[in-house]
Fold each of these.
Amino acid sequence: MRKTLNEMAELLNGKVVGNGFVVIERIQGIDEAGEGDLTFIANPQYRKKLETTNASAILVSPGTESTGKNLLIVPDPYAALGQALALFYPEETEPAGVSKNAFIEGGAVVSKEATIYPGVYVGAGARIERGVVLYPSVFVGRDAVIDEDSVLYSNVTVYRRCVIGKRVILHAGVVVGADGFGFARPGEENLKIPQVGIVQIDDDVEVGANTTIDRGTLSKTWIQRGVKIDNLVQIGHNVVIGENSVIVAQVGIAGSARLGKSCIIGGQAGLGGHISIGDHVVVVGQSGVHEDVLPGQVVSGTPHVPHRTWLKAQACIPRLPEMRKTIISLAERMEKLEERIKDK
């Protein structure tokens, strides 16, 4: 594909500074970019590379200047990069059809416009809608639903009766709808509580590789529209994750926790069960959240505290050895003063 910078500006709703007729043929990182390449700067710490890059043009944010460079100024360079990548490197479309080496159980409904690769299993009563792509070794349990244009990569498992919305992407190894961790008299008899609910994943959700989402005990575990989940995340039974939230890798969310919309949970954070996280909350990576968090808060640490408090506490840690010496010295002086007073 070839586009002039002026044409790119029109597509990305940007403004050109420099030569608008330069031709763009590829998208590259700022260090690798050369003639014919468009690159980007989304993080201010990379602005110094404006002077050294050989790219034909650079996506930048408003207020950025660089003499002699061709700039395409856009409100959000990272979002514009996404649009440009989709334009230059569109996803391959899969030919529709069901492989003769797939196993479709009687009573399952599979659209003629779906793509079913060898080794796929679709259980009775399941429904696979148009535009769905099931890669090799995908398992779809009985009465499960995979809605339009969703893509399930190899070794994804969707248990019985679970519901996957439209345009959902489940990366390799995702497990949807395994039993929640429910046992009565834990540590004694460990009596299993049957998990008879489901998982519902709404439209436009993406789930990273080897993430697991347990089914509800009675009702449902619910991942709402637009949520993005990274690799290796564990989501317990009856958890609700609000619209457009982002869950980073290795997070664990215990059963019946509820997250509001547009939350961001940093990597390796742990959220306790039966707690409520308000809208727009940010949990910093490796934090442990043990109780409710009000909307709009930023929290850190284990147990969690407001982020500013955590930063102040962390600033004290390197000085603890010196502070210890001071305290010991003060205690010794106090002891001597008390002995003098006693002798008088």
Amino acid sequence: MAKIRTRTFFRKGVWEENPVFRQILGICSALAVTNLMTNTLIMGLGLIFVTAMSSATVSALRKITPERTRMMVQVLIIASYVMMVDIFLKAYLPDISEALGPYVGLIITNCIIMGRCEGFARNNPVWPAFLDGVASGVGYALVLLVIATVRELLGFGTLFGMHVMPSGWVPWTIMIMAPAGFFMLALFIWVAYELEYKKTQPSHGDK
């Protein structure tokens, strides 16, 4: 039963209720950091950590948090975990911290985290809230990594900084520019909905 429930959380977070291509949330950072896979991976892991821990904490405090001040409490909780991520990056991964710049701090304003805290964590026990936060963060990170794979491959000819394209490869400069993030996200959404549409259409044998 527990396994089925866990699978359900991840199915919804990764596909059925994916925060990026289903709910169009958190797309600012999705467009800003996806020109390099390493930065994207770190950003995704940071958001998974913040979403999961914030949801678990909000759930643990839900019975003693006053209704009228719950939003301020949630923002304070989220900000605390974002500061942990920021301090960790500055201490152990300073180059990536500098490359991500203000986008780490802006995790506080990411709609995905507040949405899961307000929409799920404050009405459910700690463990389901934690799983819901992890699943939503994984769904966000996977979409960003798919977009980053295409942008870095075509824009730099590399994957995680390692050259994989032939020596004569001419980089597509536009892929490392911000507009490419919009194009790739739109393409991803189109492909995802096409797959969903074909999946829901009855086959000829069913007629």
